[in-house]
Structures are given as C-alpha cells and as structure tokens.
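Bench notes, afternoon.
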Amino acid sequence: MRNKALSDAKRVIQIERKALGLLEKRINGTFSEAIDLLYKCKGTVIVTGIGKSGIIAQKIVATFNSTGTAAIFLHSADSVHGDLGIIRKGDIVICISKSGDTKELIQLLLAVKHLGVKVISIVGDIDSKLKELSDIVIDVSIEQEACPFNLAPTTSTTASLVMGDALAIALLNKKEFSREEFAMFHPGGILGKKLLLRVSDLMIKDDLIPIVKENALFKDVVFEISSKRLGCTCVVDKSGKLKGIITDGDIRRTLQKFETVADIRAKDIMNTTPKLINENMLGETALELMEKYTITQLVITDKKKKPAGVVHMHDLVKAGLG
C-alpha cells in the first residue's frame, strides 16, 4: 500500500508537470496584451470564479495585492445577486473558468460588457461561450486531470494558478515594483522588518544613553555601564563631543592588567575609534556591522559629534532582524 501511495503521488506530479510544460509553450502575444491592459488599469482588478476556480481566483487576488496591484475577489454567483455593484468603469475583470460555460459567469460578463469594462479570461476551453464575451483569452487547457477519473479539478486548477502567478510577476516587473515597496505591503514579515526598520527606530536615546566624561573615575565608569545595562558607555569631552567608548570587555581587560584601578580614568581605557552608524541606516545594516566586527553595540552621533543614541544587538534580534 505504501508503494502504491508513492507511485500515485509521483503520477500526479508527472501529469501536472507535463501540463505546465505545455502551458509554457502557449505564452505568446496574447499574454503580453493582457499585461499591457493590466498595466494601464486605472481602477481595480476584479478576479472572479466559482467552485475550485473561485478558490484559485482568491489566491491570485492575494498575489496581486502583495505585489502592488490593487485587486479584489468577486464570487461569480454572488455577482449576479447584487455584488456586481463593486465593479466600476476603469476596472478590469479577470475570469477564471475551466469550462468557460458556467451560467453565473456568462451572466456576469454580459453585465460587465454593458459597463464597458475590459475582460481577461483564463479558460480551459477557448472555444467556449466565455471567449465571445472576453477581450483577451488566455488558454490554460489541459489534456487530463490528475484525478484517476479525470473529474476532480487538479491539473486544471494548477494551470490556472500558475498563469495567475505569471501575470502577477510579469506585471510586477513591468511596474518596476521594488523590494522596498514589497516590504511596505508586508510590514509584519521578516522582509518588511529588514527593509523598513531603521536604527532610529531601535536605538536607545536621551537620558538612557550611558555617558561619562573623559576624567571619570574607573568606579564611575563601571557604575554607568552597570546602571544603563547596555554593556558600554560613551566617553565625552567637556563640550559633550564623543571621544571614545568603553565596553564590558575593556573593563575586564583593565582589571586583569592592573592590580589597582582607583586612579584610572575613562580616557585611559577608552577605545578612541569606536564603530559609528547613522540613525537613518537600516537596522539590518547595523546588525551586519556588529557581526562583521564581533561587537554588540554601535554609537550614533549627531551633527555636533555628540552621542545621539546607542543601538544594541539584543534590540535588533528582539525586533526580528536576527
């Protein structure tokens, strides 16, 4: 039984892979016309279907929306019972159908034509009634379903889904949709965080910045680092300009090197060339710098070279960048 299940699974994949190979060969000027029409759309892309095709239509809508093309799903049956009102002049309707002769779809498109709205049909039978009511017809016909009875929509829905993806991605490229724009539509995702979160969003600032003067005693340096809990402190001169940074590591090395630290000043042990970063840089960039130099903090300075903030690796990781 197990071997039978494996052979059945492979058969499904083989049938659908063959269908996609044939689908690729049908990509022609008609597809380009569809992209041009979608590119010029001033309204919303309405994707409609019924049954399994309706489910595929919903996924295509999600892909369009996440890649910068405003789209909504319209159930074909609901459309002829009042929901047709969501369609406006300037919209484009994409119709998904295997047979091309579903009654609800025909009724919908008859009404759509009266509105002067352009129609793109992704259809499994290009000689169907749907062809007569469409401005552009994309052929997604198949030789057979993966279902052993050639009945359950399997290969046909895969073909429609892949064609929808092809439309969305070709349109994305034509619009020159950027990674940054993609992130704007996915602010909660990892990519969104990487492309949207900046150092200014994550840095410690104002009174929470650990700061000591150049002549601060060793014990005061340790107190400042401990109380602010960032594993470091900035060292500034009398005017408040950054002169260096002292980290937990510097404290440990000092204790190992000297028998007594009572007279040691901040300027004696500070790193005078700390790694700095601009507050407008991406948080992801800050994390990359920390990993490159094996450090856990970066200092941000203002135009007067005064400490404006500190960004810590823990905060970057907590924000989902690591």
